[in-house]
Design a protein that fits this description.
Blueprint lengths: L1 E4 H12 L4 E5 L3 H7 L2 E5 L4 E5 L3 H8 L6 E4 L3
Parallel strand pairs: 1-5
Antiparallel strand pairs: 2-3, 3-4
Length: 76
């Protein structure tokens, strides 16, 4: 089992979404993180939250940027 960092999976997801209207954002502020989760997916042209409480590992697998033998670990 290979462990990749949170920042690595974020970069992979960002590269995959580069030519779409969606972008992954890290939510800032404690109150906002409680409401929206740590990451959210936004439509940048409509300025609309498409998905909140994004699970990076599950979303990475859905997009095909995370292999079967990889798992996401926390940044040191």
């Amino acid at each position: 089992m290979n462990i990749i960092t949170e920042s690595a999976i974020v970069q992979r997801i960002q590269r995959k979404l580069r030519y779409t209207t969606q972008q992954l954002f890290r939510v800032r502020g404690k109150r906002q993180q409680e409401e929206l989760g740590r990451y959210q997916l936004k439509d940048i042209y409509r300025n609309l939250c498409v998905l909140h409480h994004v699970n990076l590992e599950a979303y990475g697998r859905q997009l095909g940027v995370l292999r079967q033998d990889e798992t996401v670990g926390m940044n040191p």
